[in-house]
Amino acid sequence: MGLSKTEIFTDQQNEISVFAKVFGHPARVAILQHLFKIDTCVCGDLVNEIGLAQPTISQHLKELKHLGLIKGTIEGTRVCYCIDHNNWSKMKQLLLEFLNQDVAISTECC
Amino acid sequence: MGLSKTEIFTDQQNEISVFAKVFGHPARVAILQHLFKIDTCVCGDLVNEIGLAQPTISQHLKELKHLGLIKGTIEGTRVCYCIDHNNWSKMKQLLLEFLNQDVAISTECC
DNA sequence: TTGCTTCATTGCAATATTACGATGAATATG
DNA sequence: CATATTCATCGTAATATTGCAATGAAGCAA
């Protein structure tokens, strides 16, 4: 039905999947990488940087902002976006725990 | 149009998003966590463990297998699944690089 | 005020994802 | 052989995602 049955999973599992899903599109990966690379706010030139139409970029930014990974500040007619370092760290902690599950593994079977 | 424009992004960005997307569903997160927790092959009881119908589980397993994160071995009428540690490590390296972008950041702006 | 720039929102079309019943393939058991 | 078990695949319905043209809102400049 196109609808995930989130109620049968743990909060942690749902949280991991929500963050992972936002990284599940190359445009959002590219936006975040650009924000980190510039190492400061990005004011306006994201549409030229990524090769998608302005409404599309705006929509991706909205999703990133909704999860708290970036924050936008209005500056005249422009909006400046940058990474929310605090929330990025929290998300990173959650995903690192998931990705590092394999360190506890002892046996090999297959 | 529901179709990602992968051609305008780098191979690395597309790869990151492909792996992230597979973690973008709590059922697949739960399956992987269970495989790690059991620390050996899982033969058959995944449908009982996760609360979804058998065809649905089968479909999620197929996606995980397609990306190489798990491997399945036929054992009689059962199929035993386990983590592909080698590919998991490669995937982890790719995502860690992405998640750890923030360590290089010096300035704060917003 | 008029026009320009920048970004958000709306509306829509195309495609993808999720979930499951029904069915099929393969093996084991009696 | 007949039956049961286990898992994959097919088909389908419901919902989500992606992308963009059109439009709206807000500030700036002349």
From TrEMBL, chains A, B:
GO terms for molecular function: DNA binding; DNA-binding transcription factor activity. Keywords: DNA-binding, Transcription, Transcription regulation. PROSITE patterns: HTH_ARSR_2. The keyword DNA-binding applies. InterPro entries: ArsR-like_HTH, HTH_ArsR_DNA-bd_dom, HTH_MetalResp_TranReg, WH-like_DNA-bd_sf, WH_DNA-bd_sf. Gene3D superfamilies: Winged helix-like DNA-binding domain superfamily/Winged helix DNA-binding domain. This is Winged helix-turn-helix transcriptional regulator. It comes from the Bacteria. It holds the Pfam family HTH_5. Residues 8-103 form the HTH arsR-type domain. SMART domains: HTH_ARSR.
